[in-house]
Task: structure prediction
Amino acid sequence: MHRLTRRLAEVHGIRQFLDIGTGIPTAPNLHEVAQGIAPASRVVYVDNDPIVLAHARALLTSTPQGRTAYIDGDLRDPEKLLADPALHGTLDLDQPVALTLINLVHFLSDEAAHPLVQQLLEALPSGSFLALTAGTGDSAPEQAEVASRRYREAGIENHLRTRAQVERFFTGLELDEPGVVLINRWHPEPDDGPVLEDHEVMAYAALARKP
Ligand SMILES: C[S@@+](CC[C@H](N)C(=O)[O-])C[C@H]1O[C@@H](n2cnc3c(N)ncnc32)[C@H](O)[C@@H]1O
Result:
């Protein structure tokens, strides 16, 4: 999330973010990364978990120049999300927006996820971006299957994807380099911490621009 956000802000000049599946606040949060580069950046966070809602105050610490909002919403109801006054009060949908889906689509099948992502991208103007990470069994098949099975045993739908399946999310978009790669290979930075081998990660990452 940090590297995707930094590249969106620094290299692609993105100043608006719609982050769905935000999760419990972290340090730094997406808006802190983006506003650290461009203080006027605006971020809308969305999650459907009441625990995340309970912690949402930590996501509403915008710079005075920028703005953040939290929506207790669901990726599976894009119409409601796109009609939310908090979204329109924070983001200008006539200007480019980065749709960030970090570690979220593994909760949905391809059949469910693709039309939802498509619908959200259609609402965003040319020059917008899709930033996505997605769980895979390509690099560490046994560990990934154990993790996926634990989700399923807990009653939570879970889908591992091949690289080709992840690439499908970017059909019709202009993929940023280096394309769809394992997260340890996506623009690694010197201060990332220990260097991870392929067999130690279980997700792909990519970034692409809407033409
Ligand atoms: C694995 S966490 C990822 C959190 C964060 N993006 C990260 O990468 O650290 C997935 C988050 O997505 C949320 N989520 C799952 N299904 C969702 C849905 N249909 N709509 C909105 N949020 C959802 C969960 O509540 C959870 O907070």
Summary: The longest strand covers residues 129-135. Residues 1, 20-23, 46-49, 52, 74-76, 102-104, 107 surround S-adenosylmethionine (CB under 6 Å). The beta strands are 16-20, 42-47, 67-72, 98-101, 129-135, 174-175, 181-182, 203-209. The chain is about 30% helix and 20% strand.
